[in-house]
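Appendix B, example 12.
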Amino acid sequence: MIKTLYKIFQRWSEKGSVYIISDTHLDDDDRKQMGYLISETEQIDIIKHIAHKNDTLIHLGDVGNPEYFKDIKAYKVLILGNHDQGAEKFEPFFNEIYDGPLIISDKIILSHEPIYGLDYMYNIHGHDHNPKNIGDNTHLNLAANVCWYIPKNLKDIISSGVLKDISNIHRVTIDRATANKKI
């Protein structure tokens, strides 16, 4: 279990791993324009190989054709992207659907588009298809073409130490209030 997640989201990791990917663009024109290097079937096969029955797969938006996800056995969470029109289209294929950014711990926010200016959050996102923009100290870009079509394990991301330089949101709030009081 990933104990750094807020309690409501710890259930995602109770029985297995949590994997994240974004911008699969399955069967849509953007996929063709962006020059994806593998087919939709190959991409889904990679996801099926990684995310199993007891795992959670979080998709950060721009799914494309959601029918490709019908045979993925993992528990599926979707944060809608700018190309995902109408949650009802995705409801038969995803267990949870969110229409905006999701704060899952005191230091991690999931979103479709990158969010800037939150020095107290590590933003895992997609949307940016430039392979040179994998991320920085406060961002991780998991657009499928940027992460080589492989969903990333949330526990591995956290274990890599990316959160060590992120100030806790509560600490930031206290420090700002203290600084303002001294003026």
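The chain has a mean pLDDT of 93. The chain has one domain: 7-182.
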